[in-house]
Design a protein that fits this description.
65% helix, globular, Cytochrome Bc1 Complex, Chain C, 465 residues, mainly alpha, 19 helices, 4 strands, 2 domains, 3% strand, two-stranded antiparallel sheet
């Protein structure tokens, strides 16, 4: 029997032709040829943050897979296997350092990416689900950091995990149940290690890969958000090969930075929450030493828990703090629906100011958790009053400079939320008022300011009721 090869010859040969005839790759190639990235109105720097985050996630997968070849989860093997990796395995210390550094850099890149999306209002229709999937990816990345922290089974990780999981008890109604599910018992034990290991290397990676795929498919289907006020971008850069080659160049730069940090700071900069020196093996019977802190991206929650009294508005202070954190995170996830002006593709200066105020709010709590300026040296505990004062000077200065730049360079005129945040910092840090009392006064001032703006017919953040 003879085979007619004329059509095959017309359709092209080679590997691509063979694959194209079976899987129909030509439409995908045509899509890539015509896909464009918006340029011409604001800096393209923000469009590269998603690619940088993806690069650091890929480095997490690659280095984590290498570590998994030697790591053995167990009460008598976890610590020993990490020590073996860092001291005996050729370049094992480098792989572990790159794994730790890429985790922190991924969080930094992801948080910066979300705030840039917030400031550029790239979550406006029809890209609401892109924002939601990005928020879930941020939550999963935090889960990666939290679950991986315990795996070395050293002293610092053990007690930090005990402090972190203990906050689960503050969840109303089901707190004790969640604590036992997370720990595998009432205390941090080898059961906790096994659960965190399974979560870190099986469950979270599977969910993460699925969501990253969905996130990328949505972006490829809808394209990158054009500048606000434009249904389409004034002009565009071809995604392939122009933007893709620039993205690849950024990946190479990220690799250089990552490798340099891993070589010159193999155990981190020795800042609380950014250090991974192995130290001593965990001993559940040993007393916890003072000054245990979680990783830096959880420090704002850690500090917020400390600011609440034992009881607040009929609830335990920790429950009220967890409730506040839940409300803040929920509002952040619902931002595309709360910002009604952006839904109509109109300027929403109020939500831009909310983003700026959020950065100041988080930064102040982070500095306080680090005890900046508190004078704690050796066994001497830092002075919380002095810490609050120094941190207030820092962040009031940063807020002033940022506001001046927004006014002169970006020509923004809405600073109500930033002013309320600065007022709370000033009352707490400079005048010594309790953090929550200062927050209450700042909230009242904010509401009065919003009512005044509304009475004058000026722009206020328009939120769905």
């Amino acid at each position: 029997m003879s085979v007619d090869t004329s059509n095959i010859a017309k359709e092209g040969g080679g590997v691509f032709g063979w694959l194209d005839r079976r899987y129909g790759l030509t439409p995908l190639v045509e899509f890539m040829k015509h896909k464009e990235v918006p340029v011409g109105v604001h800096s393209m720097f923000w469009y590269y943050l998603g690619g940088a985050t993806l690069f650091f996630f890929m480095m997490q997968v690659c280095t984590g897979s290498l570590l998994l070849l030697f790591y053995q989860a167990g009460e008598s093997t976890s610590y020993e296997s990490i020590r073996f990796i860092t001291t005996k395995v050729p370049f094992g210390w480098l792989v572990r350092s790159m794994h730790c550094w890429s985790a922190h850099l991924m969080i930094i890149s992801l948080v910066t990416h979300m705030f840039s999306t917030m400031m550029l209002k790239a979550y406006r229709p029809p890209r609401e689900m892109t924002w939601v999937t990005g928020f879930i990816l941020l939550s999963l990345a935090l889960g990666f950091g939290f679950s991986g922290y315990l795996l070395p089974w050293n002293e610092l990780a053990f007690f930090a995990t005990a402090v972190g999981t203990d906050s689960m008890k503050a969840v109303p109604g089901i707190g004790d149940f969640l604590l036992q599910v997370l720990r595998g018992g009432t205390d941090v034990s080898i059961n906790t290690l096994h659960r965190f290991f399974g979560l870190h290397v099986v469950i979270l990676p599977l969910v993460m890969v699925g969501l990253v795929t969905a996130h990328l498919l949505v972006i490829q289907r809808q394209g990158m958000a054009p500048p606000q006020g434009h249904k389409t971008a004034p002009k565009g850069m071809r995604f392939f090969p122009d933007f893709a080659l620039r993205d690849l160049q950024l990946w190479l730069m990220c690799l250089i930075v990552l490798a340099s940090l891993a070589v010159f700071l193999p155990y981190g900069p020795h800042i609380p929450g950014i250090e991974w020196e192995l130290g001593k093996k965990a001993n559940p019977l040993a007393p916890a030493y003072p000054g245990i802190k979680p990783e830096w991206y959880f420090l704002w929650i850690y500090q917020l828990l400390k600011e609440f009294p034992a009881h607040f508005l009929g609830m335990e202070g920790s429950q009220a703090a967890v409730l506040l954190v839940g409300l803040l995170m929920g509002a952040w996830a619902m931002m595309p629906w709360l910002d009604r002006r952006a839904q109509r593709d109109e300027a929403s200066p109020g939500f831009t100011d909310i983003g700026a105020a959020t950065l100041i709010f988080l930064g102040f709590l982070l500095f306080k958790a680090w005890d900046i300026g508190g004078g704690g040296i050796g066994d001497k505990l830092p002075d919380p009053v002095l810490t609050a004062r120094i941190c207030a000077f820092w962040w009031l200065g940063i807020a002033s400079v940022a506001t001046a730049l927004r006014a002169t360079v970006l020509h923004q005129r809405y600073f109500l939320f930033t002013a309320a945040t600065a007022l709370q910092i000033a009352l707490h840090g400079l005048l010594g008022m309790q953090y929550l009392a200062a927050g209450g006064i700042a909230l009242v001032a904010l509401v009065i300011g919003l009512l005044v703006l509304r009475s004058r017919g000026q722009a206020v953040p328009e939120v769905r009721s």
